[in-house]
């Protein structure tokens, strides 16, 4: 039997004796809403009597609880061991000062009523003996922590209880596997927390910016992340970017603080318009999903249309529009369904256009134009026309024809000219789309064509030029036998020479003008050539009384030749005919030494050719008995017997053994002459002959030997204390050697030989301050020339070992070693810092001198010379620097400034502090603490900076005005030293100033073409010099840039050009042409020439505080004017 049957059967037998007791034994006072905390306890009990004979075993009831927690028993319950009691205990804890207790109690009573109804239903079921039939043990009655089910005869435990009779108190969620259950409470394992140990602790305790709920941080509004440590971005970047420390970094295509905005499209423009379409374009963007294009007629936004354009397109043609209508076109970028702000464009479609137009007739000065009328309404037309090479010069109004076509005849045009014609349809004052066409007038033909200056083979043809613009003229000429030639003549010519014509021939000549394939009408004339004359007329085999004359035959058909020869002396003439087949003839009966003129010409009927002529000169006799006498070093007399023939002159030629030749004429009456300009000791060959015109007699000859000459212009130079150079003009005669002898005043003599090729020698071993007599002569074999002599006075040797010693702040001692020469004394000179020079004369016994009253920390140049009478030795010098200056040899202007020189001006610095390498520079002691070494200045434009490479290497200009210090100096200043230099660029206009500073500046060596290196920029002028960083220097004659052309040549300067520049301080002063002036592009662009520029350097991190005080000095400030 089941438990239900065991339980329900005896229970059903006893239903008639059921006692129902309902009570509320411990109810506290409810009304009053007192401050005392209140509670309500409701007990609801069902009791069922069970006979002792039943098999169901009962346990003692648990005692009800009193208000103080003790158990209470209802009257009689303790004695009724065989009862089944169903008891519900409900305890309510009332809130302080809460007047809602009555409502809560009403709700509770409603629930109790529902429980009563459920128990009544149970009684009915048990009374029907459906449960507990045959049950023998009823002690397990859910322990008061559950509900017994008659259907299953088992307990359904309340939350928090478990077991078959609900006797065990349960832990929430079985402690989630992260703890152990003790008396219904979880003891959690670390680090878990919570009633059911179900949650780990929140990370970083939510960083103080949130609340921890079940192990998860609930962040405050402005924070996010698992531990609430990150600041939240506006709108969480709208899902279009990522957040970093509260700032949105937007995806491509989005913008704004919260990345909610799509980038606005750029560059919307109209490319083309027609009557019914608009072609628009914009700058492409890879950051969008697509574009949204909309358009509508102006003022009719309601009729607008919208088009989605793929992102790959960046243009779109809007079709099916109305002609002559103004449209508003709007473009938006779209990304992730978000549209950008629009960009607008206002564009108008074209008006209706005309049909086809054409030129129907062309003349030299008119064009007939015709066109089709359009289908749209037109009131009239405007017709404009003008030459293609110029602007439109005329406009006429043409009424619209009622015919399908309109026309107009344009007159008064220039021949051969192409005209641009425009026809514009008009509707009121509104112009429609024009139609364009071209027309060309015909070329006019040349006029007044004539031929003149006709020869045997040429003729000149000329004409009046045409009015039309042409490419050329064409001339064609045809002979009587049909030979034709054609030639082109430049359009600016109005005549030409016809060449290659045949003598004695008639020609027909045509002339016309051409332009392209267009030609004018032909004009014509006639030309008849002359008979040609004999050519290459020559005479040969001339003797004293005859000569042969020959010629080249003529081309023309002739009858004969005629030869005429005439004497030049008395005019005697003879004339002989020669057959047309002959080419030469013999002239006989000539007289010796006479010149004849010979003429030859051709004849045909009465027509004669031009006469060809030549000369024939009979031979003359030569001079006899030629002799030379009165020979000296450079002259000789030559004489002869005169010739018998009539002559013009004699010619005398004399030639030296080495081939030098001179030729002189001598009058025909003379029979001797003096040969001048001969060289001594040279043998000459002398020729004499007679001349008459170009005719010469045979030559007579003889020999002449000149005397040897002596050295001339003996000079002494390059005289020192122990040597001198003697030089002379070499002798003209061939010699073996020279001999030099020099003797001192006390008789000491030396003699030295000198090679014949030399004209100077050095006299060695001389004593200082001694006068010598020097002799020089030439020798050849045992022959000697005359002696030349001069005097030589050696220089005084200077003092030696000039040194300063015992130098204090205001004094110093100078010592020296005396010279070896005999002297009268010394002159000591020293210069003060202000430029004052003081000179002291000392005795010859003095070897030391003390300078007193000197300035502290100053440098004094000192020089010392020895003297004897008015003669001076060489100058020896040194410097004496008094104690006080931190840098006795400052290497730049910053060290000059630290030597307490506070005034801007010229100073001497020493490269790398080396006293042997002085350099004069201009120091800027005013700008930004001073200490700047200035290496470039432009302020007047008076100095041209467009110079060669060598000028920029060495430097040019005045450091007090406009100048360039030099690339070698810049290299030496900025390299080879541990000092790191910075560079400053000062720029000024009349009202503005700016500057740029780079924290590193260095110029490489000449081997590296003075490559520029600059560092980081700061300043107000903008960074232009970084563009030139790492580039070599370029001038117009040394191209080291990367541009296709020479940047220095095109930008008129020298600079570290790249391709080409952002800075051009050495450009053309005052030039406003793009990139050619004095430019600093970030400040004033490429088309403004800056009137004042100054470039300077100083050590990086320089401090202007001096170490030692001293008297200030200056060479003047710099007045900046422009």
TrEMBL record:
<keyword id="KW-0325">Glycoprotein</keyword>
<feature type="domain" description="Fibrinogen C-terminal">
    <location>
        <begin position="884"/>
        <end position="1101"/>
    </location>
</feature>
<feature type="domain" description="Fibronectin type-III">
    <location>
        <begin position="445"/>
        <end position="532"/>
    </location>
</feature>
<dbReference type="Pfam" id="PF00041">
    <property type="entry name" value="fn3"/>
</dbReference>
<feature type="compositionally biased region" description="Basic and acidic residues">
    <location>
        <begin position="781"/>
        <end position="800"/>
    </location>
</feature>
<comment type="similarity">
    <text>Belongs to the tenascin family.</text>
</comment>
<feature type="signal peptide">
    <location>
        <begin position="1"/>
        <end position="23"/>
    </location>
</feature>
<feature type="domain" description="Fibronectin type-III">
    <location>
        <begin position="533"/>
        <end position="623"/>
    </location>
</feature>
<dbReference type="Pfam" id="PF00147">
    <property type="entry name" value="Fibrinogen_C"/>
</dbReference>
<dbReference type="GO" id="GO:2000026">
    <property type="term" value="P:regulation of multicellular organismal development"/>
</dbReference>
<dbReference type="InterPro" id="IPR036056">
    <property type="entry name" value="Fibrinogen-like_C"/>
</dbReference>
<dbReference type="InterPro" id="IPR020837">
    <property type="entry name" value="Fibrinogen_CS"/>
</dbReference>
<keyword id="KW-0245">EGF-like domain</keyword>
<feature type="domain" description="Fibronectin type-III">
    <location>
        <begin position="800"/>
        <end position="886"/>
    </location>
</feature>
<keyword id="KW-0732">Signal</keyword>
<keyword id="KW-0964">Secreted</keyword>
<dbReference type="Pfam" id="PF23106">
    <property type="entry name" value="EGF_Teneurin"/>
</dbReference>
<dbReference type="Pfam" id="PF18720">
    <property type="entry name" value="EGF_Tenascin"/>
</dbReference>
<protein>
    <recommendedName>
        <fullName>Tenascin-N</fullName>
    </recommendedName>
</protein>
<dbReference type="InterPro" id="IPR003961">
    <property type="entry name" value="FN3_dom"/>
</dbReference>
<dbReference type="InterPro" id="IPR002181">
    <property type="entry name" value="Fibrinogen_a/b/g_C_dom"/>
</dbReference>
<dbReference type="InterPro" id="IPR036116">
    <property type="entry name" value="FN3_sf"/>
</dbReference>
<dbReference type="GO" id="GO:0090733">
    <property type="term" value="C:tenascin complex"/>
</dbReference>
<dbReference type="GO" id="GO:0098966">
    <property type="term" value="C:perisynaptic extracellular matrix"/>
</dbReference>
<dbReference type="InterPro" id="IPR041161">
    <property type="entry name" value="EGF_Tenascin"/>
</dbReference>
<dbReference type="GO" id="GO:0030155">
    <property type="term" value="P:regulation of cell adhesion"/>
</dbReference>
<keyword id="KW-0677">Repeat</keyword>
<dbReference type="InterPro" id="IPR013783">
    <property type="entry name" value="Ig-like_fold"/>
</dbReference>
<feature type="domain" description="Fibronectin type-III">
    <location>
        <begin position="264"/>
        <end position="352"/>
    </location>
</feature>
<dbReference type="InterPro" id="IPR000742">
    <property type="entry name" value="EGF"/>
</dbReference>
<dbReference type="GO" id="GO:0005615">
    <property type="term" value="C:extracellular space"/>
</dbReference>
<feature type="region of interest" description="Disordered">
    <location>
        <begin position="781"/>
        <end position="804"/>
    </location>
</feature>
<feature type="domain" description="Fibronectin type-III">
    <location>
        <begin position="353"/>
        <end position="444"/>
    </location>
</feature>
<keyword id="KW-0272">Extracellular matrix</keyword>
<dbReference type="GO" id="GO:0030334">
    <property type="term" value="P:regulation of cell migration"/>
</dbReference>
<comment type="subunit">
    <text>Homohexamer.</text>
</comment>
<comment type="function">
    <text>Extracellular matrix protein that seems to be a ligand for ITGA8:ITGB1, ITGAV:ITGB1 and ITGA4:ITGB1. Involved in neurite outgrowth and cell migration in hippocampal explants. During endochondral bone formation, inhibits proliferation and differentiation of proteoblasts mediated by canonical WNT signaling. In tumors, stimulates angiogenesis by elongation, migration and sprouting of endothelial cells. Expressed in most mammary tumors, may facilitate tumorigenesis by supporting the migratory behavior of breast cancer cells.</text>
</comment>
<keyword id="KW-1015">Disulfide bond</keyword>
<feature type="domain" description="Fibronectin type-III">
    <location>
        <begin position="710"/>
        <end position="799"/>
    </location>
</feature>
<feature type="domain" description="Fibronectin type-III">
    <location>
        <begin position="624"/>
        <end position="709"/>
    </location>
</feature>
<dbReference type="InterPro" id="IPR050991">
    <property type="entry name" value="ECM_Regulatory_Proteins"/>
</dbReference>
<dbReference type="InterPro" id="IPR014716">
    <property type="entry name" value="Fibrinogen_a/b/g_C_1"/>
</dbReference>
């Amino acid at each position: 039997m089941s438990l239900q049957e065991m339980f329900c059967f005896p229970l059903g037998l006893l239903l008639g004796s059921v006692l129902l007791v309902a009570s509320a034994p411990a109810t506290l006072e409810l009304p009053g809403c007192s401050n005392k905390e209140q509670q309500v306890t409701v007990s609801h009990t069902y009791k069922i009597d069970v006979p002792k004979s039943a098999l169901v075993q009962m346990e003692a009831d648990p005692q009800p609880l009193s208000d103080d927690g003790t158990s209470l028993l209802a009257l009689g319950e303790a004695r009724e061991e065989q009862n089944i009691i169903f008891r519900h205990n409900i305890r309510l804890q009332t809130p302080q000062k809460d007047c809602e207790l009555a409502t809560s109690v009403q709700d509770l009573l409603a629930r109790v009523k529902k429980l009563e109804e459920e128990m009544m239903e149970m009684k009915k079921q048990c009374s029907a003996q459906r449960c507990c039939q045959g049950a023998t043990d009823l002690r397990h009655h859910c322990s008061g922590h559950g509900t017994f089910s008659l259907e299953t005869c088992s307990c359904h435990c309340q939350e928090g209880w478990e077991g078959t009779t609900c006797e065990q108190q349960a832990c929430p969620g079985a402690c989630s596997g992260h703890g152990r259950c003790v008396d219904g409470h979880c003891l959690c394992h670390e680090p878990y927390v919570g009633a059911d140990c179900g949650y780990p602790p929140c990370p970083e305790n939510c960083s103080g910016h949130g609340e921890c709920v079940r192990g998860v941080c609930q962040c405050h509004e402005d924070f996010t992340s698992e531990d609430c440590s990150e600041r939240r971005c506006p709108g969480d970047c709208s899902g279009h970017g990522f957040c970093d420390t509260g700032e949105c970094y937007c995806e491509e295509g989005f913008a704004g603080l919260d990345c909610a905005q799509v980038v606005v499209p750029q560059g919307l423009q109209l490319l083309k318009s027609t009557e019914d379409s608009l072609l628009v374009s914009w700058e492409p963007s890879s950051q969008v999903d697509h574009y949204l294009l909309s358009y509508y007629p102006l003022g009719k936004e309601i009729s607008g249309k919208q088009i989605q354009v793929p992102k790959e397109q960046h243009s779109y043609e809007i079709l099916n529009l109305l002609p002559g209508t103004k449209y508003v076109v709007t473009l938006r970028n779209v990304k992730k369904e978000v549209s950008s702000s629009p960009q607008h464009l206002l564009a108008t479609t074209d008006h209706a256009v005309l049909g086809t137009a054409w030129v129907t007739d062309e003349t030299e000065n008119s064009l007939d134009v015709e066109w089709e009328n359009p289908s749209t309404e037109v009131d009239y037309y405007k017709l404009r026309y003008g030459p293609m090479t110029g602007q439109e010069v005329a406009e006429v109004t043409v009424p619209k024809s009622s015919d399908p076509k309109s026309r107009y005849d344009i007159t008064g045009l220039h021949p051969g000219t192409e005209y641009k014609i425009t026809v514009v349809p008009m509707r009121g004052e509104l112009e429609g789309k024009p139609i364009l066409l071209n027309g060309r007038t015909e070329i006019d033909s040349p006029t007044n064509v004539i031929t003149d200056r006709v020869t045997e083979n040429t003729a000149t043809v000329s004409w009046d030029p045409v009015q039309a613009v042409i490419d050329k003229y064409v001339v064609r000429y045809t002979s009587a036998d049909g030979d034709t030639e054609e030639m082109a003549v430049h359009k600016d010519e109005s005549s030409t020479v016809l060449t290659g014509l045949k003598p004695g021939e008639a020609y027909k000549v045509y002339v016309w003008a051409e332009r392209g394939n267009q030609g004018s009408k032909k004009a014509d004339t006639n030309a008849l050539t002359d008979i040609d004359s004999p050519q290459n007329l020559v005479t040969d085999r001339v003797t004293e009384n005859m000569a042969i004359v020959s010629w080249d035959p003529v081309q023309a058909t002739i009858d004969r030749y005629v030869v005429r020869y005439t004497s030049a002396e008395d005019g005697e003439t003879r004339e002989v005919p020669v057959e047309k087949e002959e080419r030469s003839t013999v002239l006989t009966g000539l007289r010796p030494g006479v010149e004849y003129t010979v003429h030859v010409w051709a004849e045909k009927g009465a027509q004669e050719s031009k006469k060809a002529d030549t000369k024939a000169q009979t031979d003359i006799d030569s001079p006899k008995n030629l002799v030379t006498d009165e020979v000296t070093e450079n002259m000789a007399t030559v004489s002869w017997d005169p010739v018998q023939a009539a002559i013009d002159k004699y010619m005398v030629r004399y030639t030296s053994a080495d081939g030098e030749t001179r030729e002189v004429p001598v009058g025909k009456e003379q029979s001797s002459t003096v040969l001048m300009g001969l060289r001594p000791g040279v043998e000459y060959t002398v020729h004499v002959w007679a001349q008459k015109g170009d005719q010469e007699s045979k030559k007579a000859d003889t020999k002449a030997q000149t005397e040897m000459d002596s050295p001339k212009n003996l000079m002494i130079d390059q005289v020192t204390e122990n040597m001198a150079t003697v030089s002379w003009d070499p002798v003209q005669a061939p010699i073996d050697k020279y001999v030099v002898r020099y003797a001192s005043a006390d008789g000491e003599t030396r003699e030295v030989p000198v090679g014949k090729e030399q004209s100077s020698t050095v006299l060695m071993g001389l004593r200082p301050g001694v006068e010598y007599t020097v002799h020089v002569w030439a020798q050849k074999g045992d022959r000697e020339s005359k002696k030349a002599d001069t005097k030589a006075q050696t220089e005084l040797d200077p003092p030696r070992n000039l040194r300063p010693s015992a130098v204090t702040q205001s004094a110093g001692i100078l010592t020296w070693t005396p010279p070896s020469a005999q002297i009268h004394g010394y002159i000591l000179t020293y210069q003060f810092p202000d430029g004052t020079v003081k000179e002291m004369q000392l005795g010859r016994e003095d070897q030391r001198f003390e300078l007193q009253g000197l300035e502290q920390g100053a440098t004094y140049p000192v020089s010392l010379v020895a003297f004897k009478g008015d003669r001076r030795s060489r100058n020896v010098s040194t410097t004496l620097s008094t104690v006080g200056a931190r840098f006795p040899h400052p290497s730049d202007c910053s060290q000059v400034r630290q030597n307490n020189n506070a005034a801007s001006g010229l100073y001497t610095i020493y490269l790398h502090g080396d006293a042997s390498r002085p350099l004069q520079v201009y120091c800027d002691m005013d700008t930004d603490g001073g200490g700047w070494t200035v290496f470039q200045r432009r302020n007047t434009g008076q100095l041209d900076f467009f110079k060669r490479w060598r000028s920029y290497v060495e430097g040019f200009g005045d450091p007090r005005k406009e100048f360039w210090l030099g690339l070698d100096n810049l290299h030496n200043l900025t390299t080879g030293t541990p000092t790191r230099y910075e560079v400053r660029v000062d720029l000024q206009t009349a009202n503005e100033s700016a500057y740029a500073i780079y924290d590193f500046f260095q110029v490489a060596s000449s081997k590296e073409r003075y490559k520029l290196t600059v560092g980081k920029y700061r300043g107000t002028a903008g960074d232009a010099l970084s563009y030139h960083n790492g580039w070599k220097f370029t001038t117009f004659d040394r191209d080291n840039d990367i541009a296709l052309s020479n940047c220095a040549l095109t930008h008129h300067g020298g600079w570290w050009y790249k391709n080409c520049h952002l800075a051009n301080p050495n450009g053309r002063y005052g030039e406003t042409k793009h990139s050619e002036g004095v430019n600093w592009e970030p400040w004033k662009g490429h088309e403004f020439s800056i009137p004042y520029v100054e470039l300077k350097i100083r050590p990086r991190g320089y401090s202007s505080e001096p170490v030692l005080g001293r008297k200030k000095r200056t060479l003047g400030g710099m007045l900046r004017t422009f």
